[in-house]
Amino acid sequence: MSKLKPGDLYPLEAYARLRPRFREQVIAHKKNRQLAIGPNAMLTFEDRLTMQYQIQEMLRVERIFEPEGIADELDTYNPLIPDGTNWKATLLLEYPDATERHAALARLRDVESRVWAGVAGHDPIWAIADEDLERSNEAKTSSVHFLRFELTRSMIDAIKRGADVAIGIDHDGYRHTIDPVPRAVRDAIAQDLVDR
After folding, report:
1. How many Å apart are CA 165 and CA 181, to the nearest integer?
2. How many Å from the N-terminal Cα to the C-terminal Cα in the chain?
3. DSSP annotation string for 109-126
4. What is d(CA 80, CA 194) in angstroms, rounded to the nearest whole number?
5. Are 150 and 187 in contact (CB under 8 A)?
6. Does residue 151 contact residue 86 with C-beta atoms inside 8 Å?
């Protein structure tokens, strides 16, 4: 999947006009790229379109139009576009009540390193978490983490042939598994992977 370049982005004025329609398109696209893992964890599998939307929104909110600022946003978000042999995802830990959230994030320290993906007939793989910066400390974890799942060639081949996928979190404070991942989600994220 190719990375975004400045020419792939809408100028601020054009984006202001296109934003409602583009936003609807991205929401529909994300529908089959999101996976609730238990009651408090949401995994969103990112791709080129989701990252274009994220960048466009950042440029809009921050009123960035200088080439250097646009380049900074591209440098920040392009690494979250899959490379053809992996899935890249945002893990969001959702607790609406602030007191409950504070306690949960303390209890779930290092949860980001306990997220796994499995492909039928293969051993599970663990996500590589937060390569941009550390998001956990001695007291708590963050509510947002960026994950990368590196798949083997045989896993990719199996997925392309229709093999089931499972995703889970195996942490002492939070254990949930989706097995199998719904077919619509499996098919959407299979498109992130490149055939030989």
Report:
1. 6
2. 14
3. TTGGGGEEEEETTS--EE
4. 16
5. no
6. yes
What Cα–Cα distance (Å) separates residue 153 from each residue in 119, 150, 156, 180, 183? 12, 10, 5, 20, 21
Tallying the residues shown for the chain, one arrives at: 196
Q: How far is CA 63 from CA 18, 60, 66, 150, 177, in A?
A: 16, 5, 9, 35, 41
DSSP at 69? H
Give the span between the Cα atoms of 170 and 172, in whole angstroms.
7
Quick check: helix, strand or coil at residue 56? helix
Alpha-helical segments (H) within 32-122: 48-62, 67-77, 98-107
pTM score, two decimals? 0.91
**pLDDT in single tens digits along all 196 residues of the chain:** 799 999 999 999 999 999 999 999 999 999 999 999 999 999 999 999 999 999 999 999 999 999 999 999 999 999 999 999 999 999 999 999 999 999 999 999 999 999 999 999 999 999 999 766 666 667 788 999 999 999 999 999 999 999 999 999 999 999 999 999 999 999 999 999 998 6
Amino acid at 103: A
Element housing 160 (H / E): helix 153-160
**Cα Rg for the chain, rounded, in angstroms?**
18
Whether 11 and 65 have beta carbons less than 8 Å apart is answered as yes
Report helix, strand or coil for 104.
Answer: helix
